[in-house]
Write a structure and sequence with these properties.
By secondary structure, this protein is an alpha+beta fold. The protein has helices at 2-11, 18-21, 53-64, 78-94, 98-106, 115-128, 146-150, 162-174, 207-210, 241-255, 263-276, 282-285, 292-295, 339-345, 365-368, and strands at 41-45, 70-72, 108-113, 136-140, 183-190, 226-233, 236-240, 296-303, 306-309, 318-322, 357-362, 379-384, 386-391, 398-403, 406-411, 417-422. The longest helix has 17 residues, at 78-94. Its EC number is 2.7.1.107.
């Protein structure tokens, strides 16, 4: 009996009454003199992440919390959920409902999934411009788990039993809030004169782009004769051969989801694809025409309002634009520049809220292995407030891009294509 009582008292910290979450539901009893939960939470789980883990984790949260607090992202998008709940909270607030007011002030979100899923929810919260935007705790349920690792939640897939979930919720209750830069991406592609209307089917783009939809013709960002997409990222944007391997991995997982049951299997498969895609033998499998310098011109803004060309070494096959000092499962491609580099090149250590993005290049997988050494880092290209890529089609027909773990195949048009990143 003592353990059941202890369990009940602990869960009261998180439980939100149903009427606060469901519009037009009946309020049971008086709520004017009742204190609300100290750490109200909404939980979003990508049930397809982590093999069987996602579904098991969803079930455990549903058993511990009010069923209206836990959402399967495979069935309902977070923007619809949060919009509905916050409209109800605002209406209850106008009526002087103390519990609704407390929930708005103290609400925290838990998202369980890969980096793409976490970025999706971050983007939704940012785009909704809520009066009290809630902080977000990320459960590492993907392959890389860079976002959870950078904010102290670890990178190993969690346990899905009741005790493991309660332990994580205790961490959520005690956690301190941290701010993070929100990087915006604007991508323009010339509309083809013949063929398909969309160069890329929208659902093949990552959530951070297609969830925001294409910019309408009436929008000030729209440009005549172009398809314009906007989105955001919190961890990284990359392109080139690293994104190609990620694309191969995601394609294989879509075809054979039964083969991707746990993090270790996923990471092993990822390593094998790195070999089969030629990342370790790049000079043989990756012609120079597909290297970054041959398909794009890069400009950076180191001082506000001043663009300058960024020379890219001809040997660079992959370029990574980093917001967090975590990539490929917790590695830090930027490293920590010594005092001479800081003085001579005006470089600084990476911070998640400094308004700067770190641009790093890699030649091949062997170059990437230097990150395993204590002071290893990639080729530091620049730190900037904004970066712009102007793509053209030469010998290469396409390249690969990736945002926060979600890759896509990007056709290179005959005419200009301009992705621009800014904080």
């Amino acid at each position: 009996m003592a353990s059941q009582s202890s369990h009940g008292n602990f869960m009261k910290n998180f439980l939100i009454p149903a009427y606060v979450l469901v519009p037009e539901s009946v309020v049971e009893g008086s709520n004017t003199d009742i204190d609300g939960p100290d750490c109200p939470v909404l939980v979003f789980v990508n049930s397809k992440s982590g093999g069987q883990l996602g579904g098991d984790l969803l079930k455990t949260y549903q058993e511990l919390l009010n069923e209206n607090q836990v959402f399967d992202l495979g069935k309902e998008a977070p923007d619809k959920v949060l919009s509905r709940i916050y409209v109800n909270l605002e209406n209850l607030k106008l009526k002087g409902d103390r519990i609704a007011i407390k929930v708005m002030e103290k609400l925290r979100l838990i998202v369980a999934g890969g980096d793409g899923t976490a970025g999706w929810l971050l983007g939704v919260v940012c785009d909704l411009e809520l009066s009290h935007p809630p902080p977000i705790a990320t459960v590492p349920l993907g392959t890389g788990n860079n976002l959870p690792f950078a904010f102290g939640w670890g990178k190993k897939n969690p346990g899905t039993d009741e005790q493991s979930v309660k332990s994580f919720m205790h961490q959520v209750m005690k956690a301190k809030e941290m701010k993070i830069d929100n990087w915006h991406i604007l991508m323009r592609m010339r509309a083809p004169k013949v063929g398909d209307c969309d160069p890329i089917p929208p659902l093949e783009l990552p959530h951070s782009l297609h969830a925001f939809h294409r910019v309408s013709e009436a929008d000030e960002l729209s440009m005549e004769g172009c398809h314009t997409f906007r989105g955001g990222f919190w961890n990284y944007f990359s392109m080139g051969m690293d994104a190609q391997i990620s694309y191969a991995f995601h394609s294989e997982r879509k075809l054979h989801p039964e083969k991707f049951k746990n993090q270790l299997v996923n990471q092993s498969t990822y390593a094998k694809l790195g070999c089969t895609q030629g990342w370790f033998f790049a000079p043989l499998f990756h012609p120079p025409s597909r290297n970054i310098a041959h398909i794009a011109k890069v400009k950076v803004m180191k001082r506000h309002g001043h663009w300058q060309d960024l020379p890219i070494p001809s040997s660079i096959r992959s370029i990574v634009c980093l917001n967090l000092p975590s990539f490929s499962g917790g590695l830090n491609p930027w490293g920590t520049p010594n005092k001479h580099k800081r003085r001579d090149r005006d470089l600084t250590p990476p911070y998640v809220d400094d308004g700067l993005i770190e641009v790093v290049g890699f030649r091949d997988a062997w170059h990437g292995l230097v990150l395993l050494s204590p002071n290893g880092h990639g080729t530091r290209l620049a730190q900037a407030h904004r970066i712009r890529f102007e793509f053209h089609k030469g010998a290469a027909e396409e390249t690969f891009m990736r945002i926060d773990g979600e890759p896509w195949k990007q056709p290179l048009p005959v005419e200009l294509m301009n992705p621009s990143l800014k904080v």
